[in-house]
């Protein structure tokens, strides 16, 4: 029998092989990421693995897909549910991008510590919002919804196997092989000719809308390896002649701890696609929709830490606007150095980041009793703190990656009122709860503190 985590690991590996064949530059990205990780490990030793073993970091991937309707998203949830992956977080890219990016998103991933350690594969999944009048007028919305209703992204056999895997938490060898074949095939780039006029109609609104609603299938939009030094990777990819987007998204490089998530990508490549014209003839064309993203993961921040991050981003925006050619990277680095605690210990003390607390097993016995205050336990060497890895995404960074790979800004009617979507709506749309990432990190931290109190033992909970 094949367990869910084994299915997840096999699916991630096969998807990576498939995407490498379809987008050879992705293979280059993986190779350079591996080289950088090996160099960082040699230079920094055990410190390089503070946010994950080199084995996990090297194998780690996140994918991105796009669908058109709540029904399609429900089916995606069934497929990833078979792999032990749950919807975590709600991301509204419509509000995070200056360009027209008419999607809302969630990410499917494992949530338990042991499952993340086994294989942390995650898929950022975006859904088109045809009902939003800022992007689609009534006529285009009607045509788009009719088009989406007439396609089938996932065959019934795949969905049936997915439900069986989710219900039993495993599949037989034969069923697992069939599930993997069908699942990988569902995310391959289709060779079916695209209606040229229909695709171009949607492309005037948004290239993202055209990529979702202008074709009769879905596909992996990008697959992302994890790297330990994203600035060095950016430099090496550029040296190899691969065109990267203009900037690294997320927190700046600075002298303090790695925080949240930093992302960049090579630019979307022109890929040959068959285009059908109104007279029925098929032309050879090219579309730019897929790109190669890479990420560097840092420490998960609490709600207060995230609020600080968002305030600093807004401050960078203000400072960079006057003068308009200001160096955003330098401004951000200066603000982070001034406003963000420069050590893990201070981040924890100010309640800005999440940690896993563990009893120090080899503390010299001195006859003293352990205190109950966390800061004293840390100061006196009873307990150590290990940072929790940020397993999720940043809407502005995701939108920045999307936006950097668009050929134009599309169209958006800001005089119209947008349709409201939120996590609660999305939970109802896919018939399963969209989990709050902050709650997951807090539960993980709290469990570790309960375990500390149990092991020492203490006369009460850790303060």
TrEMBL record:
Superkingdom assignment: Bacteria
GO molecular function terms noted in the UniProt entry: dioxygenase activity
Pfam families found in the cross-reference section: HGLS
InterPro entries membership: HGLS, YdcJ_bac-like
Cofactor(s) the protein needs: Fe(2+)
The enzyme's E.C. designation: 1.13.11.93
Class of enzymatic activity (EC top level): oxidoreductase
Keywords: Dioxygenase, Iron, Oxidoreductase
Family: Belongs to the 2-oxoadipate dioxygenase/decarboxylase family.
Protein name per UniProt: 2-oxoadipate dioxygenase/decarboxylase
């Amino acid at each position: 029998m094949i367990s869910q985590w084994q299915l997840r690991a096999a699916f991630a590996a096969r998807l990576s092989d498939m995407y490498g064949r379809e987008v050879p530059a992705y293979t280059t990205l993986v190779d350079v990421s591996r080289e950088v990780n090996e160099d960082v490990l040699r230079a920094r030793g055990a410190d390089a693995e503070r946010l994950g073993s080199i084995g996990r970091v090297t194998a780690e991937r996140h994918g991105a897909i796009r669908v058109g309707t709540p029904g399609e998203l429900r089916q995606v949830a069934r497929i990833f549910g078979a792999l032990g992956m749950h919807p975590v977080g709600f991301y509204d890219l419509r509000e995070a991008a200056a360009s027209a990016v008419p999607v809302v998103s969630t990410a499917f991933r494992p949530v338990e510590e042991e499952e993340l350690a086994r294989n942390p594969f995650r898929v950022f999944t975006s859904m088109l919002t045809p009902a939003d009048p800022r992007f689609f007028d009534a006529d285009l919305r009607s045509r788009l919804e009719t088009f989406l209703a007439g396609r089938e992204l996932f065959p019934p056999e795949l969905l049936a196997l997915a439900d069986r895997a989710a219900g039993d938490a495993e599949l037989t060898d034969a069923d697992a092989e069939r599930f993997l074949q069908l699942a990988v095939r569902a995310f391959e780039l289709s060779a079916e000719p695209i209606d040229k006029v229909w695709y171009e109609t949607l492309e005037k609104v948004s290239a993202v809308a055209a990529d979702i609603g202008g074709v009769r299938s879905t596909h992996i939009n990008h697959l992302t390896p994890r790297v330990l030094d994203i600035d060095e990777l950016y430099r090496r990819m550029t040296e190899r002649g691969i065109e990267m987007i203009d900037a690294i998204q997320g927190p700046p490089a600075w002298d303090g701890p790695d925080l949240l998530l930093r992302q960049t990508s090579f630019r979307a490549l022109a890929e040959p696609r068959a285009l059908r014209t109104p007279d029925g003839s098929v032309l050879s064309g090219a579309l730019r929709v897929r790109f190669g993203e890479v990420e560097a993961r840092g420490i998960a921040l609490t709600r207060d830490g995230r609020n600080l991050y968002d305030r600093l981003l807004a401050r960078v925006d203000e400072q960079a606007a006057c003068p308009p050619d200001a160096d955003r990277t330098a401004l951000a680095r200066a603000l982070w150095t001034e406003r963000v605690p420069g050590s893990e210990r201070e981040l924890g003390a100010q309640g800005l980041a999440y940690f896993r607390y563990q009893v120090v097993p080899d503390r010299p016995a001195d006859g003293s009793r352990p205190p109950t205050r966390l800061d004293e336990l840390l100061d006196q060497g009873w307990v150590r703190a290990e940072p929790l890895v940020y397993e999720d995404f940043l809407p502005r960074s995701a939108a920045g990656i999307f936006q950097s790979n668009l050929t134009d800004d599309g169209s958006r009617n800001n005089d119209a009122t947008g349709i409201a979507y939120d996590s609660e709506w999305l939970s109802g749309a896919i018939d399963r709860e969209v989990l709050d990432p902050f709650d997951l990190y807090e539960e993980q931290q709290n469990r570790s503190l309960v375990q500390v109190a149990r092991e020492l033992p203490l006369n009460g909970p850790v303060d």
